[in-house]
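DM between two lab members

TW: hey, do you still have the Transglutaminase-like domain-containing protein entry open?
JB: yeah, one sec
JB: this one, 760 aa:
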Amino acid sequence: MSLLHKPNQSIFHGLVYGLMFFLLWEWLRPFPVFTDTGELHVFVWFMLVCFVVVFLQLGFVLSFVVVLFASVYGLHEIFYGGAFFSADGGLLTVQHLWGEVVHNVGLLMAWQLYEVTDPFRTFVMFLLLALVSYLLYYWLFYSRGIVVFVLATVVYVAVLDTFTNVEGDAAIVRIVVTSFLLLSLLHLVRVRGQVFNAQTMRKVPVTWVVLLIVVVVVSTSVGFAAPKYEPQWRDPVPVIEEALSGELFEMSDLSLSSPSNGGGAQQVGYSDDDSELGGGFSQNTRTVFHAETDQVGYWRGESKNIYTGRGWEADEALVDADHFDYPMFSDVVDATEHKASVTFTDEADFHLFFYPGQMVEVNEESLSYDIDDGLTPEFLTDALHGSVGLYEGSANVRLNEYEMTFQSPSFDQEMLREAPKDDPDEVTHYFTDLPSDLPGRVGDLAEEITEGTDNRYDQAKAIEAYFKEEDFSYETDDVPVPEKGQDYVDQFLFETRRGYCDNFSTSMVVLLRTLDVPARWVKGFTEGDPLAQLDDGVQRYEVSNDNAHSWVEVFFPEIGWVPFEPTIGYDNDVEFEADSEEVSLDIDLDNDENEEDRANEEDADLEEDLESSQEEDESEPSTSDGEDEKDEGIGAASWFNAQSLFASVIVMAFVVVAYRMRYRLIGLYFLVYYRRFGHDERFGQAYQRLLWMLECKGVHRYEGETLREYAERVDELFSKPSMRYLTEQYEKLCYGGCVDHLDWKRDQKLWEDLLKEASS
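TW: and the structure you got?
JB:
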């Protein structure tokens, strides 16, 4: 960063450069929406550090140290946690980072880009932000090409707003305001000649800046408040699709619950209407709520019982829920009691309580909600489906936050296998019904899958395992919608065999019902992503629309409703205990002795292998938990070998050589560029590049020194009259305002000779 000479670091220059910070921030804001980037605040703070370092011009070595320290601290905050200034904090992070760099450099050299680890990607992102911070400073005060960056920012946000889930309305307003202020202030800098040696502007021109802010704010406010035309074009996405595919068709509005429009892209999330399932969807990472609990699980919202052949509907049986007298499971089930608090985001709009396991109680003092017309809602539960919510006629009730007590069950497998089959009439009536036109091959498949089972639990486990053992695939993009008259489950089981949670869970419910096993379709959210470890084992979780999920509950008489998870890539969050007697083996004593002898022989062979490996490499440290270390990243103990050391030396040597030759490389770039693109109109730009290279060489302009005086001093230094001649041509260009007297081909040789001297 010492490539730039030090201009006067005035408050005014800092104000202009600070606006660039906010403009670059707009590039980072959408990252959590369309990428898997988290902890955005860490990147913003790192970017702020880089901007301060670049503005203060601390020199290359000090700047490098500060940026590297900030990178390590950022990686520690994102991936490793804990106290940074401790024995197991920053030093351990440095060791991990070194291991990550060495490991991933090998992957890059092998072109295994998909194997690059997240910590290394983040480290590269930090370096990229540092580089961009430097480049923006150069573009702002030297190259003067900042308009391109402003336009690129507008295009960037517009494209994301059009083709992704990013909402760019507020971003465009912020960009317009920031850009007007930035360009206006930069124009003032140019007018007052403060680009290279800002010596006179030591104070901010307050009157000018205040007037500028007033004009920008007033014009923006008028534009924001003024009436606007409705969009004159249809949504550009289907228009582009039509142009590319040659198909002209009318696209209706899409929602998660209305995929019947041809399988267009919906957004994943929780929807009240599940009557039409199918079709692909796009990701939606917007947060729905935050939860704090010491026992996480699937967040249950509601279930539905009527399968129509295309989706789900529900019979309602709302009753007073003051005491939650409609439990999910009976007292014979082992359950532990836990507490949780849920806080919805401003964008979420739910009247249902989401809870893991079985809700026991809601702390009314913690309950916060919004309701139309100041009414008071009632606690009601759906006795058929286990959902609990706030209701008040047709009024809209929106939950804000609540604290609750819930039970987390643990089901005994033997108890489930021995459960009777005499279901209550009400359960049989509501939870075994199927459409009359369901294809018979669905029931035949259920019989085939469960052949050899003699109890309800094994039947459910067999169907659950069927989806994960056969050639089914989890797919969210290319998921077809059933044709008219085609059954949703039949299409999935026998034709497409690809889909997401709705396909798998609905199919399992239907397969079970063909066997007269009561089952229902449940939806809610998965556990969410852990954000922070709090006191007493409590963790804070973030649950987003991407966590929307559906699963299956099966009824067992005298036990209750038991969850099952058929979707590929998901694991049931409910604990199932195996009877210790069931897993014990009846092996005679002779077999025990034979097994023991074989085990002893294997242990002896293993010890010999370990001893030989230790003799071969005594210096290589070992890890006691290899699998965990692999999951967490590349440890500090696996990278130190001859190959990594050699690669590190080569990389460091390359960096040192490139740094020492930086002026020559930059000069070579200027030579090549202006040989190809140089012409009379670019003479002024080429002259300024020459001034910049002379500053880098150490030939600084003194305060108050004119360009002619400076040119004479340069010519004396290099024993050539070239600089005075080029300066005369530059002054004619600046004061005359025309290029008629210029001849780039004539002056190019003089300019190149001086540039070579400056970059040598």
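TW: got it. The radius of gyration is 34 Å. The mean pLDDT is 77.
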